[in-house]
Write a structure and sequence with these properties.
- It contains five helices and five strands, in the order E-H-H-E-E-H-H-H-E-E.
- It is of the alpha+beta class.
- It has a single domain, classed as Histidine kinase-like ATPase, C-terminal domain (Heat Shock Protein 90, 2-Layer Sandwich), CATH 3.30.565.
- It starts with a strand and ends with a strand.
- The mean pLDDT is 96.
Length: 141
Amino acid sequence: MRDEFIKLNYEIKSRDFINGGEASSCVKKALMQLGIKSAIIKRVCVACYEAEMNVVIHTLGGNMEVIIYNNKVEITMKDQGPGIGDIDLAMTEGYSTAPDEAREMGFGGGMGLPNIRKSSDEFYINSVLGEYTLVKIIINY
């Protein structure tokens, strides 16, 4: 039996605080139209939003791909630029490298990656300094 799926793709722009969160809203609408349970939608939206805003705040931009299967949602976020030097430290609640610009708007509390991990059934992160960070999130339903 073949898995059916829906693939969504979004470009995330660096420092685009006005449109930050728009991709996550589109994912939410798609999941609602598919009749996915609200508890699953909430987890997916938290993970998407946190990943999206991390790209807006910390990188030169990136791409979010969301694949909705019959039994799970896979979110892959790959950004361009600076990378994460110490992933264990970055996963610590409250740790943040957000610039003042983001903090002045209420972002940068150091909960992005921890919230993504808490919302996920499976969470993978890989980063190369000066090149990219890749985050993969799987939420089963």
